[in-house]
Amino acid sequence: MIEEIITSGRMNPEIDPVLHVWGWEIPFYLFLGGLSAGILIFSAYFTLRNRQDELPIAVKWMPIAVPFLIGIGLISLLLDLSHVLYAWQLFTNIRWESPMSWGAWTLMLITPLSIIWVATWMEDIFPNWDWKFEEAKTAVNWLKSQRRLLAQVLILLSIILGMYTGILLSAFNARPFWNTSILGPLFLTSGLSASAALISFFSRTEVEKRLFTRIDIILIGIELFMIIHLFMGHLAGTQVHIQAAKMFLGGAYTVSFWVFVVGLGLILPVILEILELKHKFIPAIVPVVLIVAGNLMLRFIVVNAGQASRWLY
Amino acid sequence: MSNTMNRRDFIKIASIGAGGVAFATPLFDFSKGEILAPDVIPGMYAKRTPTYCEICFWKCAGWVHTNDKGNIWKVTGHEDDPHSNGRLCPRGTGGVGMYNDEDRLKTPLIRTGERGNQTFREASWDEAFTYIADGLKKIAAEHGPECVALFSHGSGGHYFGDLIKAYGSSNIAAPSYAQCRGPREVGFIATYGEGVESPERVDIRDTRCLVLIGSHFGENMHNGPVQEIAQATEKGATIITVDPRFSTVASKSKFWLPIKPATDMALLLAWIHVLIYEDLYDKEYIEKYAFGFEELKAHVAQMTPEWAYGITTIKPEVIRQTAREMANASPRVIVHPGRHVTWYGDDTQRLRTVAMLNALLGSWGRRGGYYYPEQVDFKSYPHPPFPTPKRTWKDAYPGKFKLAGLALASGICDATVPTTERDCSFKGWIVNGTNLIHTLPNQANTLKAIQALELMVVIDTMPMEITGYADVILPECTYLERYDDIRVSKHREPTIALRMPAAKPKWNTKPAWWMAKGIADKMDLGHYFPWKNIEEKLEWELKQVGTSLEEMQRIGVKKYKRQFDDLYPMQNLEDFEFNTNTGKIELFSTAMEDEGYDPLPNYTAHEEPPDGYYRLIYGRAPMHTFSRTANNPNLTDLMDENSVWVNPKIAKEWGLKNDQYLWLENQDGIVSKTPIKVRVTERIRFDSVYMVHGFGHTNNKLSRAYGKGASDADLITRVHVDPVMGGTGMRGNFVTFRFKAGEEVSS
Amino acid sequence: MRYAMAVDTLKCVGCTDCVVACQTENDVPMGHCRDWIVEKTTGTYPQLQLEIRSERCNHCANAPCVRTCPTEASHYAAGGIVLVEESECIGCKACITSCPYDARFIHPEGYVDKCTFCVQRVEKGQKPACVSVCPTHAMIFGDLDDPNSSISKAMATRKWKSLIPEAGTDPKVFYLI
User: Does position B34 have pLDDT exceeding 80, yes or no?
Assistant: First the structure.
């Protein structure tokens, strides 16, 4: 028997007995970040492909949500900061090694860009839109002419944002469960999947709906593949990684992860989407709710489980 | 080597320590890269004042540091103090918590409801003193002053001792005697003519082999010995630990003997057998100093390691090997007498055996064995002679406990319960700083005694279980807020230490001297306290030993040179007359024989736990002193409840899991008042459970300690009383596990 | 100059004095601690071993907390002591999750706090509070770059280990075994 215990009564709040410094705020923020990144990527990508009129929801409508999503995400991030009055310190430093710093700066750039992006589409969306001021009109018109450049920058920043939501976690080698580079691509893919599902739900045309349903099916396939890889990687790792994987393979997170995230959040909706493509009647709301909920849950579980996984000594 | 100058040579050396005191200055030893600065950071505190610690009986001297806001900041050890060597233990370091505890007693209280119901009204000091004085006068008039007893633990007790002596009673008991170290003193006095005393006169620093019988140094943070054990082991000393539990010190030992509980006597006798029959004992030493060797030799002839194996479960070769290990180190070997030794009721005899083992190894009076301590000849402020009491507590026990050297706390408690056999039971208790409910075994009996009292006065800093039963509660200020008597230490070198207030007393609390003097004034006994205030008393006393209050306030501790060079008086087999009947080390005790006790110790089998029950072993945790620190904010932060240690095999049998709460029930059907957490650990034997003493407080005025953990005292209902001196053996209780609370006992 | 600490597990009795001393010295709020005691028991009764360690921030030379800090609050001070600058800390807790030793915590005032090796004492030539009180002298503090320092000597003559070196942290608290 090995008994290893702290005998001096250490009970630091949120650290002991199991690390839980990050509550709902961080996973929720990661979810919104991923979703925003997904929406912007689709919008920018199909703009570059000149399909803005064919895919109005994806390109023009969905980005309207992004500034709000990011705004809510930032609020929850600020709620998480325990020394929030000093939050401005984030922008007096550039720390290349710190994913937090990366995230802060990316958001700093992407938030105004997403607003500008939405602005360039306002007249398309609302035909009666009036910018009121001549200067604004001129500026927007100039920005419209730069849309391709904007789209390219947005895609780059959105990929960084989407990946960052995972890399933020995988940069912590102290938490073996997070310590896998697949977390970045996985969170990016999952963010894309949730936005594809939402676009498909809101789309008014068969073309757009079917396109995004198809995209979503592929993305979910990639996601499942990455999840399997995540565990294969851990199981082929060191003792601490094996221990971390075991939390999901018989441990505390087994049911919540495999039933809710994988079963109800990925496999069931992908089946429903395939049936939908085959013109079976599926209430459109069902797969999208399942996917978004699964997406959210994935982040909650990963954030929690990562904090519970630790080095053994 | 000591060139012995015997005390008995009467060569006086005038040496009132001029040299002893040097104020340490910061310095850096560049050759070693060591920082040797004392604990002083300029600018980090406004001042430091000397104190000696009151968190346990070790009374380490230290400094109280005050920050620039005038608040007490921290307490550190005093560099010149032989008790602490500049380093306090966690409790001493956490002493500020005692001062900061907001649950402290804040003002005098007088009971308004039933005893134990915790209904009190606030009173002025004058009112409280009048109440006490009237009560004491009434008892003196109706029953005689001898029917009042003082129970005391801690520095202030001396003043209440003077008070009741002036009043006419000599019944002053400390639970530290009959509930703790009494048998040790009696066992050693019967052998060497003197006791081990406190701090123990063991020369651990220079020993080569230290044998511990159940002592768990490191978990009991007796500062001096713990420090010296580390020093000795660094120099390569062997430790042999006998304990059914894998204690901290067992883990540091070369030999750990996981003995079957209650069989230590057989092991000790077998060791004696090996030392004698393998010719390993110190022959010259025994020949010169010992009386009764042949009787002992014959006595242990059959007590072979093989015989002991069947009793103790310790293999014969291990018994032989450890005996040889001791002999190899002889005379620099200590078979340590322990401190809390009231276990099975034959404790005096067991400690006699320990004393004899040391004699056979030639370690008494030798370097690395037992040294001869010395203290300053200290005169107390003169007062008129106290009246001679007509009776003492011993009159309640004709023909019993004949070798008890000090009053028995448990004996006085028993003699308080009225019986037809006695014409006078105790009627009044003054309880100073000792929580008798947790300290004395057999709580039901203690409560019965308390209910029979006419007056109970409790002096404490904290509300405790015992304060709930008091008629009057006097709130004492903590040691950080008061002057007390000078600490006069018996050690390798004599020292004195001053305690002075580092801050004004919080709330309406007062020092013991002020209370005792105040009560005395009310009773027209003021002339026994003939000083104006304690400063005047201390000033006079310090002057007699060549110093002053002003100097002591500055230096805190004053070292004196030994008057006699007899630290190790038997080092080279010098002549020595022991204070025994024969003037020798009595292996065969004539005193014991005279009083009708076994002159040579015998093994007696003790009761074993019934099926499904486990022997209750209790002990200490390094961050707590009994129950008195259980509410200290700094120390509860480290440990706020105890757990019951259960061997994994037993845990499996019962389906017990770590951190699960359950109740313990003893052989008499008594259930612990509070639940306790399980700790499944290999560190405890399968036939025993272990818990740390001092938890399970039931006084809800203790905001941090209330209801946390369980009290072993609840479960010690069967007491094996030592016939020689009345020690209360408490290790003969057995417990089993219960998954729901016991029924409420109506009080 | 490279400050380091060595804890002699053979001498440490786990008394927790280091924990209390740290608390009073540095005014660490109740319910929080910068150092702690771990007891590790291995084996089966009666073949048992016990290792007792006084643990704290390892002041890693390759500190993940410094790397993940988005501001420069977590930083290396003179002698390699890892510190947190309260007025730069935003409380994002990235450093807390990045520490494999769980050595950091959130101070009730919001910033992240941890062992400082008592830098305020060390600057003045004193040992950290925990070292200065240890009753068994189980702790050594000093400069690894000075071959004559007691810590360098202990490391040269004793067997030692550090905690989770495989996490790549290059810890500077060592355990003499």
Answer: no
- Kindly report the CATH number that applies to the domain delimited by A25-308: 1.20.1630.10
Contact list in A for residue B683 (CB cut-off 8 A) is 3
Quote ipTM for the complex: 0.94
Backbone angle region of C30, left / alpha / beta, with phi > 0 → left and psi within -120 to 50 → alpha: beta
User: The tokens 């355990």 sit on which residue?
Assistant: C175
Residues 6+ apart with CB under 8 A from B532: none
Q: Are A43 and A58 in contact (CB under 8 A)?
A: yes
Q: What is the pLDDT of residue A6?
A: 94
- How many whole angstroms separate alpha carbon A246 and alpha carbon B400? 67
Pairing of strands C173-176, C160-162: antiparallel
Q: Would you identify the CATH topology of the domain C3-176?
A: Alpha-Beta Plaits (3.30.70)
| A164 touches A105 (CB < 8 A) | no
Q: What is the CA radius of gyration of chain A?
A: 21
What is the token pair recorded at A150? 């904007």
For B266, other C-beta atoms within 10 Å of its C-beta total 24
Asked if residues B221 and C37 have their Cβ atoms less than 8 Å apart, the reply is: no
Q: Which residue of B has its CA nearest to A4?
A: B681
Please identify every stretch of chain A with a pLDDT value under 50, giving residue numbers as ranges: none
Task: Say whether B93 and C146 touch across the interface (CB within 8 A).
Answer: no
CB B76 within 8 A of CB C17: no
Contact B213, B247 (CB under 8 A): no
pTM score of the predicted model: 0.90
Contacts of A1 in chain B (CB under 8 A): 648, 682
Hey, of C48, C56, C90, which one would you mutate to test binding to chain A, going by the most A CBs within 10 A of its CB? C90
Q: CA of B377, closest CA in chain C: separation in Å?
A: 30
> Which domains are present in chain B?
179-371+583-594 (3.40.228.10), 614-738 (2.40.40.20)
Residues of chain A with Cβ-Cβ distance to B623 below 8 Å are: 8
Task: Residue B730: name the closest of B746, B705, B711 by CA.
Answer: B711
| Res B445: pLDDT | 85
Q: Where are the domains of chain A?
A: 25-308
Element spanning A2, H or E: strand A2-6
Which residue is associated with the tokens 């069947």? B310
In DSSP notation, B103-167 reads: TS--S-EEE-SSTTS--EEE--HHHHHHHHHHHHHHHHHHT-GGGEEEEE-STTHHHHHHHHHHH
